[in-house]
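INTERNAL AUDIT FORM
Audit reference: QA-55
Scope: verify that the stored structure record matches its stored sequence.
Auditor: D.O.
Record contents follow.
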Amino acid sequence: MMLFLISIALPIILFYLIHKRNQKSTTPNLPPLIPGLPLIGNLHQLSRAPLLHTYLSQLSNIHGHILRFNLCSTPTIVISSAKLAKEVLRNQDLAFCSRPKLVAQRRLSYNAADMVFAPYGAEWREQRRIANTHLLSPVKVQSFRGVREDEVARMVAEIARCASSLPSRAVDLSKAAMGLTTTLICRIGFGKRYDEQGTELMRFKDLLTELGTLLTAYFVSDYFPALSWVDRVSGLTKRLDCAFEKLDAFYQELIDDHLGRGRAQMDDQDHILGMQIKFELDSGKPNWDRVKALLMGRAG
């Protein structure tokens, strides 16, 4: 009986030892791992740091300028020197330029269909060419100067009116700045200026607020892909789906409105949505999800 057990166990042990040796020989030369806990890795250390950049600076003084963490099951590298940052962001840019595949970002960007979240490749290069040549060229950005000046003048006039009223009224500058940003997005992005107290502008502001909240929300599946059910149980997945459907409906209404104007009027549109719709129609195979993803990237 003992010989039988040994005959079974010995091949398993030998296979394990050979596998570990081969694994070591093919493992890349990684920087030392910052000690953490099982399962959650270093997540508890980073989340408890009062000032994250200060904490990372302190760790770099101890462990060097390349830090390696485990955020649950996700390996993460932190660069803490200007020289290495230049190496990553410039010299080795193609190896690091793609964004991580986070749940909310991929969902809200139509599976990374826009230039902001798309992985580096032929599609990304084509989108960048269109953006640099047509949508965000120096000439095009300069053409929006009148819109920017008009909206800033409106905001300053409103602040002056509140200050000169009797009695003078306090001005929430954060709210005013948010209103300016939203209005600029609407006018430059899709050629509309909604009434400041109107339902459409409030609807768009609410969508932007929800968009910002979800893009920075903690999804368990970003760190534990096998535990995606936790996001469903917590209601976060349903909230993400609901926000996506509302954003999709809003963008579709904008596209339908522009398509309903006829080609002659669309050719005269100088805002981003009008130009992107023209590109899609000229291609012969319009991809409206790509247009919506572009709008999401500009709004986010």
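Auditor finding: record pair retrieved intact. The two ends are 68 Å apart (CA to CA).
Action required: none
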